[in-house]
Design brief:
The chain is mostly helical. Helix content is 64%, strand content 0%. It has two helices and no strands. It is elongated, with a radius of gyration of 16 Å.
Length: 44
């Protein structure tokens, strides 16, 4: 299933907008994860 979305020759692959949305989603996840790690109680 992943290969179907990544390989451009296969019908049903990701469009440019889907790749952009995925990149934004991953960036938001990384930012929120790193922010949450910095807010953990008990860290000095």
């Amino acid at each position: 299933m992943i290969l179907m979305k990544v390989i451009r020759m296969v019908p049903g692959h990701f469009s440019v907008y889907e790749w952009l949305t995925l990149a934004i989603w991953i960036a938001l996840g990384v930012m929120l994860s790193s922010r949450a790690k910095g807010l953990q109680p008990g860290k000095a």
